[in-house]
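Following up on my earlier thread - several people asked me to post the actual chain instead of describing it. Fair enough. Here it is, all 65 residues.
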Amino acid sequence: MPKMKTRKSAAKRYRVTGTGKVRYKKQGLRHILTKKSSKRKRNLRASGILHDSEAKKVKVLLPYA
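Reply from S.P.:
Thanks for posting it. Predicted structure:
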């Protein structure tokens, strides 16, 4: 049986942790930063964890994760 292909768009956006949770980079930290507070920008730096229902959909796209 041939290898399964990874959806490269999903591989660039998500990573799977050792416990199986899906991490992602939060949006909103690319431009128009002057109007955002320092607290908001600091919280956007941290990676987010997808909810379990969303993580199931992403794991289909990442077969070897």
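The longest strand covers residues 14-16. That should answer part of your original question.
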